[in-house]
Design brief:
CATH class: Alpha Beta
Number of helices: 11
Order of helices and strands: EHHEHEHHEHHHHHH
Number of domains: 1
CATH superfamily: P-loop containing nucleotide triphosphate hydrolases
Strand content: 5-15%
Number of strands: 4
Structural class: alpha/beta
CATH topology: Rossmann fold
Strand order of the largest sheet: 2-1-3-4
């Protein structure tokens, strides 16, 4: 089988990916290594980039072997393809406002010129919010409810989410003890430790202090950052109001950049 842990950047796909790996280990499912020809970065958990997914499906025997990739797929041809029963897409949804705060801290760590949140939001954050909302809508339209997991429920009802993940993958229900081990192994502390030790490959494009990018994961942290005007603005974006110029800027700064630099 092929498991694709998908989600918009900074929405919790790394955590979902880590949980799925632990679920597979509990079930003694052997995970095979994806040939390096399907990725643009061998140090990344994105073992299959979107532009090479169809090649992978054509050339590799995923029906007899088990593969997993963490991804941010978004293209319509990828999402609307008719996949067979050995391919599992799993999505994670997060409050767009918390995702924006997480994205802000990611860029602040990666680029020295990113300073205060207000400037970030005006030039980048509101465009990222539009992307997150747009991509999530694409996902919802293309896949069934059982493929989706909410970040908030992963925080507040971990056991139930793990059981739902097991069910979505056609695996046995795990015991309370097994789920407790998975919760411990995918805690913020453990995920930071694995990044420092090299066991995990998340955030491979960041050169230093990658472990700090796994932040506190607090629900509602956006309340500490958003001004009243920003709250109103992101609601307008979510409601699809007055998006003409925002869409133009998004196309120039996000879509064109993604194509030119082959960001996947």
């Amino acid at each position: 089988m092929l498991i694709i842990c998908n989600g918009v950047f900074k929405s919790g796909s790394s955590w979902l990916h880590a949980i799925v790996i632990e679920v597979l280990r509990m079930n003694k499912v052997c995970i095979h290594e994806v040939p390096s020809s399907y990725t643009n970065n061998i140090n990344s958990p994105t073992t299959i980039v979107e532009s090479k997914l169809f090649d992978f499906l054509e050339n590799e025997d995923y029906r007899k072997r088990n593969y997993i990739t963490k991804s941010h797929y978004y293209q319509s041809k990828t999402l609307t393809r008719d996949y067979d029963s050995d391919i599992y897409f799993l999505f994670v949804e997060r409050d767009v406002r918390d995702a924006i705060v997480s994205h802000y801290h990611h860029l602040k760590k990666k680029y020295f010129f990113i300073k205060g949140f207000n400037l970030y939001y005006f030039f980048i954050g509101r465009l990222k919010a539009f992307e997150i909302l747009t991509f999530n809508q694409k996902y919802i339209e293309a896949f069934s409810d059982k493929s989706f997991f909410k970040y908030s429920e992963m925080k507040t009802n971990f056991e139930s989410v793990v059981l739902d993940i097991s069910s979505a993958l056609g695996l046995r229900p795990l015991s309370e003890e097994e789920i407790s081990v998975i919760k411990s192994n995918t805690s913020i502390k453990q995920m930071r430790r694995k990044l420092l030790s090299g066991e995990a490959k998340y955030y491979s494009t960041v050169d230093t202090d990658r472990d700090t990018l796994i932040r506190k994961g607090q629900l509602g942290d956006w309340l500490n950052y958003f001004s009243d005007s920003q709250k109103k603005d992101i609601k307008k974006i979510a409601d699809g109001k007055d998006l003409f110029f925002l869409k133009i800027f998004y196309f120039i700064l996000f879509s064109v950049r993604r194509r030119v630099f082959r960001i996947e």
